[in-house]
Structures are given as structure tokens and as C-alpha cells.
Design goal:
Elements lengths: L1 H8 L22 H10 L6 E12 L3 E11 L3 E7 L5 E7 L3 E6 L4 E6 L13 H9 L11 E6 L2 E6 L1 H8 L8 E7 L6 E8 L2 E16 L2 E12 L3 E12 L15 E3 L2
Parallel strand pairs: 6-14
Antiparallel strand pairs: 1-2, 1-13, 2-3, 3-4, 4-5, 5-6, 7-8, 8-9, 9-10, 10-11, 11-12, 12-13
Length: 266
């Protein structure tokens, strides 16, 4: 149940435009530093957001399809309500900077744990900022441009780890938990379209993300379709799609566990 909760949690003013179609264009030359500046200029930002969501999740032995709502407050809260196709809520979950809360309506149980429990699944140090950046197609740690080089791949810019950083990692005597990232950038929107994240010392633990169907919200573009592949202690594949994305200061994050529910532990 925790695995479904995680992917439900790992999801996302007024008025969205029609979906942006990509067209091939001649590519300007960029250094890594100048390309990263363009990506940063086009990052989606928000205070509070909400969206309708559709989920398709596949693990080694289970498939799961659902719909629901996602609400977020920047760097503070990720809240989601997950329902069966007929509309009955089966799960409500909330992530804060230090905690994970999950309420299972089916068996009247709830989970309340430190956010570190998600490290068993994610190949990264789990933070709410990382999860929110995944949900809106941003990257929080592209500032160190010396770590990257730029190549062209299938009509897109490709930011790859530089040889300099590889040498630094290889010759360091400490056992680093170094996170390596490759990114693909659309040449028109300067938005991330594909994102591979892995640990240097553990090639089996990685996340692959793919973003598409961008819409404009408040003058910036956000993807409405995300494919996620997680390889770690278990395999997980998910598709997340959004509709009716809005921003509103009055968005609420209600999470109240009924007294008759029993607490479960990881």
C-alpha cells in the first residue's frame, strides 16, 4: 500500500491554454551555463496549486488505475485524494517537509511516519522540494554549470555530466552518495522533457522521467503528462496526467483521521 501512496503523493491560475505542440527547429548554440539560465528563466513557479489527476501505476506484481485531486503549497505540503473510477475516495495522503501521512479508507487504517521511509524506494535523498520539482518539471540543482556539457540529441538539447565531475568522483576516496543527472531540454520552451537520475555507486537505483503535453498557466509552461520509471528495491512504472490546473490562495489541505482508524507501521 505504501508504494501506491508514494506515487499518488508524487504528483501536481487561472485558465490553461491548449497543449503546446513541439516542432523541430534549428538549434542555437549554448554553453551549459547559458542553457541552464534559459531553463531557470522558464521554470514554473507557484504558491498554491491544485489539479485533477489520473494515475496508472504498475509494479512487479500489481496494476493500479485511479483518479483524484492533487494540491500543493510550495515547499510545505503535497496533498492528494485518490478515488476509484466510480468516485469513492480510497486514499488520502499528505507530505510535509519531515513527515508522510497516509489514510486508507478501505481498511480504516492510517500511516504516520518520518519522510525518510521513502528512501527505501527513491534513489535520492527524499525531500518535499524534490518531489514538487518532479511534479512540475523543474530542477532545483542545475546551478553548478561546470558539472555539465551540452550535446544535441534528436532535436533537443542534452545536458550531460561533464568529464571533469566524473574524474572528481572517481578519484575521491570517500564513499559518496553522488547523484548523477542527464536532462533533455526542448529548444522552444526550454522546458525539461526527459530526466534520468541515478546514484554513481549503484546503477540499479535510478529514476527516469518523461514530460509532455505542456500547457501555459500564468504565463509559464507546465507538463500535463508525466511518465515515471523507478528502479530500486522494487520496480515501479507510473503515468500521471493533470487537468484543470489552477492557482488559488484559498486552497485547503484537509487531513483528519477518524478516531476509529487503526495506525499501521512501516
Amino acid at each position: 500500500m505504501l508504494i501506491f501512496s508514494l506515487l499518488s503523493v508524487a504528483i501536481i491560475n487561472t485558465g490553461c491554454s491548449s497543449k503546446k505542440k513541439m516542432t523541430k527547429t534549428s538549434l542555437r548554440e549554448f554553453t551549459a551555463a547559458s542553457l541552464i539560465r534559459e531553463v531557470e528563466k522558464n521554470e514554473f513557479d507557484f504558491d498554491k496549486m491544485q489539479a485533477k489527476i489520473n494515475l496508472k501505476i504498475e509494479t512487479n506484481d500489481k496494476n493500479f488505475t485511479a483518479k483524484g485531486q492533487l494540491r500543493m503549497q510550495k515547499d510545505s505540503i503535497i496533498w492528494t485524494s485518490i478515488s476509484l473510477p466510480l468516485g469513492m475516495e480510497v486514499l488520502r495522503a499528505m507530505v510535509t517537509p519531515d513527515s508522510l501521512f497516509v489514510m486508507n479508507r478501505n481498511d480504516k487504517t492510517y500511516l504516520s511516519e518520518n519522510i525518510s521511509v521513502l528512501n527505501d524506494i527513491s534513489p535520492l535523498m527524499t525531500t518535499i522540494m524534490f518531489m514538487q520539482s518532479v511534479l512540475i518539471g523543474n530542477d532545483l540543482n542545475l546551478r553548478e554549470s561546470d558539472n555539465y556539457k551540452v550535446e544535441i540529441d534528436d532535436g533537443q538539447y542534452n545536458l550531460l555530466i561533464s568529464k571533469k565531475l566524473k574524474k572528481e568522483i572517481k578519484h575521491n576516496d570517500e564513499e559518496w552518495k553522488v547523484i548523477l543527472k542527464d536532462l533533455w531540454i526542448d529548444p522552444q520552451l526550454f522546458k525539461i522533457t526527459k530526466y534520468h537520475i541515478r546514484e554513481y555507486n549503484d546503477s540499479k537505483r535510478k529514476i527516469e522521467l518523461q514530460y509532455s503535453d505542456f500547457v501555459e498557466v500564468n504565463g509559464k509552461y507546465i507538463p500535463t503528462n508525466i511518465n515515471i520509471n523507478v528502479h530500486g528495491n522494487m520496480y515501479l512504472k507510473a503515468n500521471i496526467s493533470y487537468s484543470n490546473i489552477t492557482t488559488d490562495d484559498n486552497i485547503e489541505f484537509i487531513y483528519n483521521v477518524p478516531k476509529k482508524y487503526d495506525r499501521i507501521f512501516k
